[in-house]
Write a structure and sequence with these properties.
With 264 residues, the protein is of the alpha/beta class. The chain is built from five helices and 14 strands. The N and C termini lie far apart (38 Å).
C-alpha cells in the first residue's frame, strides 16, 4: 500500500503549507512550516503518530533540505526546528512523537503552562509575544476559547495570521464563550493596529463548501467543492457578530457564508 503524501504548497520561497491527506485522516489538518535564518517553525504536527500513514518527519526533512540548498548562506547545522501548536487537540499534536529525537528539534508542550513558559507570556492571554526565527519575526497571540492553550501566529513576512481552529472556513467550536469572544476581540485589535498589516487568515481545516452557508459534516472524506482556505481579515468582524447571537445552548449553531459557529 502506498503512503499518502502531504499536499504541499510553497506560499513563498520561505513558507510552506502542508495538508494531511483525507486518505490518512478525515480531518485533513493544515500544517505550516516557516523558515528563518536561524531556525524554522512548524505549526502543528497533524492527526497521526504513524509515519507510514502520514510521513511527517520525512516530509519535513525533504523540505528543509530543499530550503537549505537554496539558502547556502545559512550555516547553522543541524538547522534548528521549533515545533509549536495552534492548540492541543489530538488532530494537531498527534505527530509530535514522530519528531522525538530529531536533531536540533524542540517541541513545545501542549498545556497552557508549557505554552506560556516557552513563549514568555507575562500576561496570558492578553498580549502578543515576539518570536524571532532569524530575520523573520512572528507574533504569538493568546487565543483560548476553542481550547485552553490555543494561540494564533502572525507572520510579519507574509502578513498571514495563522488561526488554527479558532477561525477557519468550517465549524467554529466555542467551548468557552467568554474566552472565545475575548480572543476574537483581541485578534481584531491586533488586526487594526498600524504595526500589524494582516493580509489574510489561514486556519487549520476547510469544511465549508462553495455554496454559502453549506458545511461538510464531520467525517466527510470527499470535499470536491470546498472553499479555499484563506479568509479575509474582515472575517473576524463577522465571527464577532455571530457570537453575539449565541445564547449558549449546547449544540446551538449560527451559520454564515464562510463559517458555522457552534456552541460546544
Amino acid at each position: 500500500m502506498s503512503v499518502p503524501e502531504a499536499e504541499i504548497t510553497w506560499l513563498d520561497a520561505d513558507t510552506v503549507q502542508l495538508r494531511q491527506p483525507k486518505s490518512s485522516h478525515w480531518e485533513a489538518p493544515f500544517l505550516f512550516l516557516l523558515f528563518g535564518r536561524e531556525r524554522s517553525l512548524l505549526i502543528d504536527t497533524g492527526a497521526t503518530a504513524d509515519e507510514a500513514v502520514f510521513p511527517l518527519r520525512a516530509t519535513l526533512d525533504r523540505l528543509t533540505a530543499e530550503w537549505l540548498r537554496r539558502n547556502p548562506a545559512v550555516f547553522v547545522r543541524p538547522y534548528p526546528l521549533l515545533v509549536a501548536h495552534s492548540h492541543a487537540h489530538g488532530d494537531h499534536i498527534a505527530g509530535d512523537p514522530l519528531l522525538a529525537g530529531r536533531a536540533a528539534t524542540t517541541v513545545v508542550g501542549p498545556t497552557p503552562a508549557q505554552v506560556i513558559a516557552r513563549f514568555g507570556f507575562r500576561s496570558w492571554p492578553d498580549e502578543a509575544v515576539e518570536l524571532d526565527l532569524g530575520r523573520r519575526l512572528v507574533d504569538v497571540i493568546g487565543g483560548p476559547g476553542h481550547e485552553p492553550s490555543a494561540v494564533a501566529f502572525f507572520d510579519r513576512a507574509t502578513g498571514i495570521l495563522f488561526t488554527g481552529d479558532t477561525v477557519l472556513p468550517g465549524h467554529l467550536y466555542v467551548r468557552d464563550r467568554a474566552q472565545y469572544r475575548a480572543t476574537i476581540e483581541r485578534l481584531i485589535r491586533f488586526r487594526d493596529a498600524p504595526t500589524a498589516p494582516v493580509r489574510e487568515l489561514r486556519g487549520a481545516h476547510v469544511e465549508m463548501s462553495s455554496t454559502p452557508g453549506v458545511v461538510y459534516p464531520p467525517g466527510t472524506l470527499d470535499q470536491p467543492d470546498e472553499l479555499p482556505l484563506p479568509l479575509p481579515p474582515r472575517i473576524l468582524d463577522r465571527v464577532l457578530d455571530a457570537l453575539g447571537e449565541l445564547t449558549g445552548e449546547p449544540g446551538e449553531r449560527i451559520a454564515r457564508k464562510r463559517f458555522v459557529v457552534v456552541a460546544d
